[in-house]
Specification:
Blueprint lengths: L4 H6 L5 H17 L9 H11 L4 H16 L5 H14 L5 H18 L13 H8 L4 H15 L4 H17 L6 H18 L7 H11 L7 H28 L3 H21 L7 H17 L8 H14 L3 H19 L19 H7 L5 H23 L17 H14 L5 H11 L5 H6 L4 H17 L6 H9 L1 H11 L6 H14 L4 H15 L7 H8 L2 H4 L6 H13 L22 H8 L10 H4 L5 H11 L6 H6 L18 H7 L1 H14 L9 H8 L9 H24 L5 H18 L8 H16 L1
Helix pairs in contact: 2-3, 2-4, 4-6, 5-6, 5-7, 6-8, 8-9, 8-10, 9-11, 10-11, 10-12, 11-12, 11-13, 12-13, 12-14, 13-14, 13-15, 14-16, 15-16, 15-19, 16-18, 17-18, 17-26, 19-24, 20-22, 22-25, 24-25, 26-27, 32-37, 34-35, 35-37, 37-38
Length: 793
């Protein structure tokens, strides 16, 4: 150390030029010094460290330059140099941060070039860029610039090698977001957007970088709405870069196939994000718009439909089943219809791929279920799609058995959609009694497979599905609790399995069993009732076509109607459906005979007799305040049931023969009835009072839910009642959810937390439909009072 002490002392003189000269002298001596004094010795390392930790800008600047020169000339080990710079960076003045980060970036680029692109690290923590990122927040802006320089200067060695080097750093930058402050999110946004923009400057070699960015998107956090907004920004950056690169490549006629395959991968990632965020009201709309942009730009550029889009279609199938918001359903239907038309217009035209069991058939039952949507747009889009799907289904039905084949074999099991399609293919083409179908149902339901049953009494998959659904129905009737797997089966699987069974209805040998399984699902899940009724009409129309006529299957399909009537709410709909079919061929003149006095035409029908038996309501039904509001369909269905006094409160359960005390678990001081629970319970009354106070309205709650809904509709005027009309469904849904949590899970919220949950739900619903432009809950609450003020002023 004494050998360098005089030179180190000169670095403290006030003249910057003398300070720089002293640093140059120190490093010159390090190059020529004997081994016990060179850069690898303890005195040499200590001299380098003191220079880098100096408080003088000229000394630090010159020391960094000289250290980089030492490494470049192979006089100093790269790992040691990075360690010295890292140490200096951690304790340096903020003004020196950019200098040290630039030096580390320079050394990383130099070493990568020396290794011909093969430099790697054993763990993520040892990556130099990760170490820099962990030092301090001030490094982030310059670190992004060094990453871009690394890509730009080393892409000649191979963009794939560059991406492999950066992969641990990018993955770490994404994975640390949930565990650090907001600065990590801002850094990730800056990094990904900058890399996406850089790709546009070299489109021919940009595909590996885009693939790296797409793989990083898979690790984005998905725990809340804020994370989803950030994810949307990340995806939008990558989509914009991809579109620009694709336009460039299409204009040159280069790498079109590879670019389209990257587009398919990007679409699958976007749709996978949608499946994770279906619970965030309205959150999927931006993602779906990005997916449409990706598809439309390829069609506009004249590109061909590629078979890999089948995986995209299967992902859309899953999202359509899970989505409950009408505007999302409309977007999904448009995307699917676009893909279907695109497929027809080129070499993968349906006519040219005759007799191929295609994945589009899985959409038949979900699309039928949307024909009953209260939204005219969704209903129209679903009807148009159903016409195209009917043609495809008929083509499958009339195909010779020995000519119908799979395209490309079984799909890989990577998504729920691919599982459904592979199951459909296996059941359609393979032995219907094979074990694969049973094991899938076993997986879906959580039951243990009975080996003796499988070996001695083989049954088709549809028969197993029917028996298991009826088993759950019987278990409910006997008041036995369902297991967690059975509850999941009832809540998550009916529409999914109905889609598979809906295609098997057209199978020559499995059709009858598939109809029975659909009937059993309809008994198990009342929500499937209306879609199943529409499906009966759909299949009845097919089985009466001149080219298909099948009286046996027609009778089998119509035989499902009695099972649907097990739900009392379905009886009027069934009667309305059957009557036109019965009267279609009736004679206009009635001969002498019996006359039914309850009908003006004298013809007996079940509906009139049913109406005479039940007590007529005192008032008309408030259908507008239920079905014309922009609330999720399940909430509207619940309010509709509550208005008919049919929800399973204690008093209604006692009417059905259950012996239990009538006790309101919300207030713990009154009997539980529909009107008490949703209107007059002190807990519900507190929420209603908050609404009236916030809107500035003086209101006396009516005695019944029906009377409230009648008086509520457009209470603030025709153009100011969008949020107001949504309040009853939102509030009653909140009360019902809390009641069920207390009853079945023994978990309760404080009144203040219940109010917060109600306000948040109302805010999400209003934002999803564009009724409010507020960006925060306080602004939203303030806007409610302004609405009523505008009306009454």
């Amino acid at each position: 150390m004494d050998s360098y002490a005089p030179l180190l002392e000169r670095t403290r003189v006030p003249q910057p030029s003398l300070q720089k000269f002293a640093v140059i002298s120190i490093f010159s001596k390090l190059r020529s010094a004997p081994k016990h004094l060179d850069s690898e010795s303890e005195p040499g390392r200590d001299a380098i460290s003191q220079c880098l930790h100096s408080a003088s800008p000229p000394v630090v600047d010159q020391s960094v330059r000289e250290l980089c020169r030492l490494v470049t000339n192979s006089h100093f080990d790269i790992s040691r140099a990075l360690l010295e710079l890292q140490s200096a960076l951690e304790g340096s003045d903020p003004n020196f941060v950019r200098l040290f980060v630039k030096a580390i970036g320079f050394l990383v680029r130099t070493e990568f070039q020396k290794s011909n692109g093969e430099w790697r690290f054993t763990s993520t923590e040892t990556h130099p860029f990760v170490k820099v990122l962990l030092c301090r927040p001030e490094v982030q802006d310059e670190l992004v610039q060094q990453v871009l320089l690394f890509i730009a200067q080393n892409k000649r060695l191979g963009v794939v090698e560059v991406c492999e080097f950066l992969r641990p750093f990018l993955n770490y930058s994404i994975l640390r977001i949930p565990f650090s402050d907001s600065s990590s999110t801002l850094f990730a946004r800056h990094l990904i957007s900058s890399m996406a923009s850089l790709c546009c400057s070299f489109p021919i070699g940009a595909m590996p970088v885009l693939k790296l960015l797409m793989e990083c998107i898979k690790y984005l956090p998905r725990k809340n709405s804020e994370a989803f907004r950030n994810n949307t920004y990340f995806v939008e950056c990558v989509v914009d870069a991809y579109i620009m690169i694709l336009r460039n490549l299409a204009g040159r006629g280069l790498m079109i196939n590879e670019a389209q395959l990257r587009g398919v991968e990007l679409l699958e990632i976007i749709l996978s994000l949608c499946t994770y965020h279906l619970r965030h009201s309205g959150g999927n709309e931006p993602m779906l718009e990005l997916a449409k942009r990706l598809l439309f730009v390829q069609k506009d550029l004249g590109l061909q439909y590629v078979p890999e889009y089948s995986s995209v279609i299967l992902s859309i199938f899953v999202i359509l089943i899970q989505s409950e918001l009408e505007h999302e359903q409309l977007s999904i239907l448009k995307i699917f219809h676009f893909l279907l038309k695109w497929k027809r217009e080129n070499e993968y035209d349906i006519d040219k791929t005759a007799y191929v069991l295609s994945e589009e058939l899985l959409f038949i039952f979900p699309v039928i279920s949307l024909v009953s949507s209260p939204s005219k747009c969704v209903k129209g889009a679903a009807t148009d799609l159903l016409v195209a799907l009917e043609k495809l289904l008929v083509k499958t039905l009339v195909a010779p058995t020995n000519e119908l084949a799979m395209k490309g074999g079984f799909p890989p099991l990577s998504t729920p959609g691919s599982i459904a399609f592979r199951l459909l293919q296996h059941l359609w083409f393979q032995d219907q009694y094979s074990l694969s179908g049973f094991f899938f149902l076993n997986f879906a339901s959580g039951r243990k497979a009975d080996g003796k049953e499988m070996l001695n009494l083989p049954r088709s998959w549809a028969s197993q599905l029917r028996d298991y659904s009826l088993y759950i129905v019987d278990k409910r009737k006997s008041s036995l609790p369902l297991s967690q797997s059975q509850e999941l089966f009832v809540t998550e699987m009916p529409l999914f399995l109905s889609a598979v069974a809906g295609v098997l209805v057209m199978h020559q040998s499995l059709g009858s069993a598939a109809v029975d399984s659909l009937a059993a699902i309809g008994v198990m899940d009342p929500k499937v009732g209306v879609p199943l009724l529409l499906a009966i009409l759909f299949y009845s129309n097919i089985f009466t076509r001149n080219d298909i006529i099948s009286h046996d299957m027609l009778l089998k399909v119509l035989g499902v109607l009695p099972s649907l009537a097990s739900h009392s709410v379905m009886i009027p709909l069934i009667v309305q459906t059957i009557l036109p079919m019965l009267h279609k061929d009736a004679k206009p003149v009635v001969d002498d005979g019996l006359w039914w006095s309850l009908k003006t035409n004298g013809i007996f029908d079940v509906r009139s007799y049913y109406s005479s038996l039940r007590e007529s309501p005192d008032i008309a039904f408030p259908w507008k305040c239920i079905w014309c509001t922009k609330a999720p369909r399940r909430a509207c269905f619940f309010v509709w049931t509550a208005a008919w006094n049919k929800i399973l409160t204690c008093d209604n359960l006692r009417k059905r023969g259950y012996n239990l005390p009538s006790w309101c678990c919300m207030c713990c001081c009154n009997g539980e009835s529909v009107d008490h629970l949703l209107l007059h319970c002190p807990i519900a009354g507190g929420l209603w009072s908050w609404i009236f106070q916030t809107f500035g309205v003086h209101w006396v709650l009516p005695g019944t839910v029906t009377a409230l809904l009648f008086s509520w509709w457009n209470g603030l005027g025709r153009h100011s009642s969008d949020i107001w009309n949504t309040v009853p469904a939102c509030l009653m849904w909140t009360i019902w959810e809390e009641r069920n949590h207390r009853t079945f899970e023994d978990v309760s919220k404080l009144d203040s937390h219940l109010l917060e949950g109600f306000i948040l739900t109302l805010f999400d619903w209003s934002r999803a439909w564009g009724f409010s432009t507020s960006t925060s809950i306080p602004d939203f609450i303030s806007s409610l009072s302004l609405i009523s003020h505008d009306v009454y002023s």
